[in-house]
Amino acid sequence: MNVSEQEFKFMVEGITSDLIQLLMDRNNYTLPHAVEAVYSSNTYNALLRPQSNMYFQSSGYVFSLLNDELNNRAISRP
Asked: What 3 state SS string does the chain have?
C-alpha cells in the first residue's frame, strides 16, 4: 500500500506522540526525558524510514521495540 508523504508524516507524528506518552505513563519518564529517549533511539530512526513499514504498526508494537531498546541500552551502560 502506498501512502503520500503527507500521510506518512502524519502517521509517524502520531506514533511518536504515542511513544512519548507511553514512556511517561508506563515508565514514569518526565516529558523532556521521554522526548529525548524517543528522538535519540534507533527505533525512531527506523520509524522515519518508509521502507521499514513501521508506520503501519500499532503504537503499542513500536513501543515494545523502543522499550526493549531502552532496557538493553540501560543494561549495557557501565
From this structure: CCCCHHHHHHHHHHHHHHHHHHHHHHHCCCHHHHHHHHHCCHHHHHHCCHHHCHHHCCHHHHHHHHHHHHHHHHHHCC
